[in-house]
Design goal:
- The chain is of the alpha/beta class.
- Strands 2-3-1-4-5 form a 5-stranded parallel beta sheet, with helices on both faces.
- Helix 8 runs parallel beside helix 11.
- The N and C termini lie far apart (about 45 Å).
Length: about 300
């Protein structure tokens, strides 16, 4: 197992994962903090070549270039396999240890932090990978998440070489009993995102109870100005309750909620302005989980 005290922040993305990697890096003394070190992003308007260089430097050329090209340096593929039921718990533990033991132990500092959507399906096995850890799963209102992803145009929207070589999101075609199985090919990207929000979050939330060192936090409550940092500080207290972390030496969160770490384009409208058919599709696919999580439709 990995003995270094570790903090894992995960979600389906679009939930401030980069924000948390920067936050912990600044306020926890002796901390090595990384945001999706096993993911290579494309060079778009908001992605500079410096980011790629940083990722390669952090992960190492062998991991990022050689193993990544072979598909052997990617936590999200392990999560996807667990979602499909293609990988046993024992196999998943072995694979995560293979990918992370050397990487974590090679980093400086006495605390390891990783903010990575790739852990979404691995929460229940983390207590068999990390000896001392805290796992934070961030859930976001499905309507806001779908709108954000529609604007980013990445999930179920890749084109060209990225469509061939980059990670492919799970689909209903892998689940013969799924209601969308037979019509997936003709399903709109909007409906596919609704399906992903419900399917992947549903899996993560159904397994999180298996790990006593994991907790769910709502995106809206963390970043709400009304909370006046209460939920953010609660998250910080939970995540840092580990050996080797002195609470007296942790920095303050004051001002962090005012920082703009990353913003998406807003071509696709907010859910209040969705056409009636999209609202109906969303409620049909995501309604049960939205209700379970306490998100109101009105």
């Amino acid at each position: 197992m990995i003995d270094r005290p570790s903090i894992i922040i995960t979600s389906l993305g679009r939930t401030g994962t980069k924000f948390f990697s920067l936050l912990f890096k600044e306020i926890i003394p002796g901390c090595s903090s990384f945001h999706e070190p096993d993911i290579v992003q494309y060079f778009g308007a908001n992605n500079r070549i410096e980011l790629f260089i940083t990722r390669v430097r952090d992960a190492g050329i062998y991991n990022m270039v050689f193993l990544k090209l072979l598909g052997k340096w990617s936590l999200i593929k392990i999560s996807d396999a667990r979602l499909r039921g293609d990988l046993s718990e024992k196999q998943a533990i072995k694979e995560v240890l293979r990918q992370r033991t050397g990487f974590v132990n090679s980093k400086p500092g006495n605390v390891y932090v990783e903010s990575n959507a790739g852990y979404y399906g691995l929460i229940p096995i983390l207590n068999k990978v990390y000896t001392h850890h805290r796992a934070v799963y961030i859930i976001r209102d499905g309507r806001e998440w779908v709108s954000s992803e529609m604007n980013v145009k990445e999930l179920y929207g890749k084109k060209g070489l990225r469509k061939i070589f980059s990670h492919k999101m799970p689909s209903a075609l892998e689940f013969p009993t799924d209601p969308l199985y037979r019509r997936w090919q003709s399903t709109s990207r909007f409906e596919k995102l609704c399906w992903a929000w419900s399917k992947l979050n549903g899996y993560a939330l159904n397994t999180i109870a298996e790990n006593p060192c994991a907790r769910i936090f709502h995106f809206e409550k963390i970043f709400s100005k009304k909370g006046e940092y209460q939920v953010l500080n609660d998250l910080l207290t939970f995540a840092t309750s580990l050996p080797g972390i002195d609470p007296e030496h942790i920095g303050k969160t004051d001002g962090w909620l005012d920082r703009k770490i990353h913003e998406s384009p807003n071509e696709f409208p907010a859910w209040e302005k969705w056409p009636t058919d999209q609202k109906r599709q969303f409620e049909q696919i995501c309604g049960p989980l939205m209700e379970e999580l306490g998100y109101a439709f009105k």
